[in-house]
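User: Last request for today: this protein with 2-phosphoglycolic acid, please.
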Amino acid sequence: MRKAIIAGNWKMNKTPAEAKALVEALKPLVKDATCDVVVCVPAVDIATVKAAAEGSNIKVAAQNVHFMESGAYTGELSAEMLKAAGAEYVIIGHSERRQYFGETDFTVNKRVLAAVKAGLKVIVCVGEKKEERVDGYTDALVAYQTLIALTGLTDDEVKQVVVAYEPVWAIGTGLVATDEQANETICVIRKAIEGRYGKEVADAVRIQYGGSMKPSNVKGLMAQPEIDGGLIGGASLKAEDFSLVVNYDK
Ligand code: PGA
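Assistant: Here's the final one, the structure of the complex with 2-phosphoglycolic acid:
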């Protein structure tokens, strides 16, 4: 049985003071969650959120990581730095990074390897654009993105990775994949992992759905057998909304 994992992706929102207030409001609301609860926060909020979450079941994630250990990379943050600041997880390859910041499957893989080496847990994002779904490339594309992202990891390391399937057309748009669409594509991702690493590894990997997941649709999505959690943007910015997603089984 895979333990569900619900992660809030705050994106470029919340100052440290706002982040502290949100986590403090969230703590009592999610304390009985049966899933892993993660908040993916701006790097400048990591230390504050880690301190505010102390003694709770809320885990802290960064939203990106550089692939080098140190050096002349102005403006970048290494996996060691993020870990030292208090991050346990890191999102890699979010579609906004691919779309606006030149992220490629190759650099996603480099970041995954660097994060895993430093002991960060990885949430790696894959997903198709609208036209790619219309043209029938979704399955090939998500399989390819996933396998490239994982290249170079051992079987045991792959088992620890969380994959977030996020159809780009469903992110921040209010459009949501149907429960069945999300389940089917996640199934494709799991089969691709199975093809390369075998069934035992594929069955251990947790695969989230992301894209306009919110209190009103979380139950249906989480009832699907292949969906092991969610990566939540908009609905993670208010404690009440995010707690309703986290407590989807209550
Ligand atoms: P959304 O974002 O929930 O606002 O669609 C999801 C994401 O980008 O991870």
